[in-house]
Amino acid sequence: MTEKERDAIERMRQSGLSYQQIADNLSIRKEAVRSFCRTHGIAPSEDTTDRPVCPVCGRPLKQPEEKGRRRRFCSDGCRTEWWKSHPSEKGYDIARMHVYRCVKCGKLFRGYESADRKYCSHECYISHRFGNGA
Fold it and tell me: Which of 33, 34, 128, 131 has CB 3.0 to 4.6 Å from 104, enough for a Cys bridge?
């Protein structure tokens, strides 16, 4: 369990979520959440209303009043982090993906097989192709 997950479990539990709700939000086992909470003495707050929380950081979400889609993440950063760590939920076939090394920064990244795949991001492509002054 990572430090981020531990912090998120603590925030979610104190905001009144059940072990199962926390486990579903973080995609971990309910028993792991229960064990962590019991070991560290983390109890739910007095106000146990069913409030949605961000699955990455555990912050409570403010949902739109009437119109609009319900929020799932508190920020773009949390949304991006979630989808990067859960590619199979987005419909990617991880078994068919290959690991590549970026020509510019040397970082390892995943992608479908392609003869011309060289860069981990558009920023690396622009920087390598046109130089840092572009």
Answer: 128
Helix (H, G, I), strand (E, B) or coil at 76: helix
Rounded to whole angstroms, how far apart are CA atoms 50 and 17? 7
pLDDT, tens digit, 9 for 90 and up, residues 30-83:
899 989 988 888 877 655 456 678 888 878 888 777 777 888 888 999 888 888
Q: Show me where the domains of the chain are located.
A: 1-65+73-90, 93-134
- Confidence band (pLDDT; 50, 70, 90) for 98? confident
How many helices, marked H, and strands, marked E, lie in the chain?
5, 2
